[in-house]
Design brief:
seven-stranded mixed beta sheet; 12 helices
Amino acid sequence: MNELEALVRSAQTSFADAATPADLENAKALFLGKSGRITELMKGLAALPVEEKKTRGAVINTAKQAIEAALNARRQALADEELDRQLKAEALDVSLPGRRRGEGGLHPVSLTLERIEGIFGSMGFVVADGPEIETDWFNFTALNTPEDHPARSMHDTFYVEGGSEASPLLLRTHTSPMQIRHAVQHVKRYRALIDAGQAMPEIRVIAPGRTYRVDSDATHSPMFHQCEGLWVGENVSFKDLKVVFTDFCRAFFESDDLVLRFRPSFFPFTEPSAEIDIQFQSGPNAGHWLEVSGAGQVHPNVIRNMGLDPERFIGFAFGMGPDRLTMLRYGVNDLRLFFDGDIRFLRQFQ
């Protein structure tokens, strides 16, 4: 075995003994580095005659190529070994079921609002929308609420900056302002017919949405939902209110096995006014009267604020809490659960 063959074998053995890439680079320096064995042999060619230099150079170059091939082979082997270790460490058991992406769903109160809109939509009611930051006039004055009414106190209502002393701004305490806004626009649209004594298309609207009051406990929240309803025309009676709301309750709870009662009450925007209670004849709530709405015939002053003559036009209004209806429908006993954002609770309604 000549010197160069021995050198190649020595390099191959050193590379094979290298356990890490760092060890391999150190071994490479012994043979191919600036001071390595091959480099020293290449420098020695300068002292040889031209013909011998060519022959010797070719043999040295062949040995260098063999050493480089051994180096690259060991580099690849070390890389393959590292990849195998990573694959084993990160191995997946493909026999296990995969992790499915979680699917969202509508909030239970949103489900209730959709249900309310669908039922009243089948009765010819349209849905009105409006601002949650409301003016004092639409929220209170237009609804015949006196200036000394407790609801206008800062203890009950969230007032916000941006208004004036004459017209303060507030977070709406109910969705009735949307009824007024809708009615005013409706009257403007048909003013010519009204002034000519002709029939105006009836105002039949519901106003669902978020409302705000300074209140918080198991059955009250500072932010909650309401749905107000309004039907105004020339021949709308209290009997229509009873029929509409009875049909709604039976459709909403999917049961004809319930009865309604109207208790006299007081609201500034209706006269006469009533609280509406329902009683289930079977189920967990059987035998108990449960309050679900306030209602009444629209007060003449409110009719005037719509731009209509109360001697000619009459109607009824009602207001209910979708949150309360959701609690009754699904058997939830704490209103705060709807707003805690607990996925474990909300997942039940998907």
